[in-house]
Amino acid sequence: MLWTMMKDPVVWGSLLGIGIIVAMMMYYTYLFMHNSANEDK
């Protein structure tokens, strides 16, 4: 079952999409915190 899921390209596409969304959220959170810190100085 697990090996069949790992060979399915749809699973990899979904994981890639989720990974991109999470990476963008982390990146924009970092930018927001970084810009907020600069304004306080």
From TrEMBL:
The chain crosses the membrane at residues 12-33. Keywords: Membrane, Transmembrane, Transmembrane helix. The keyword Transmembrane helix applies. The keyword Membrane applies. This is DUF3149 domain-containing protein.
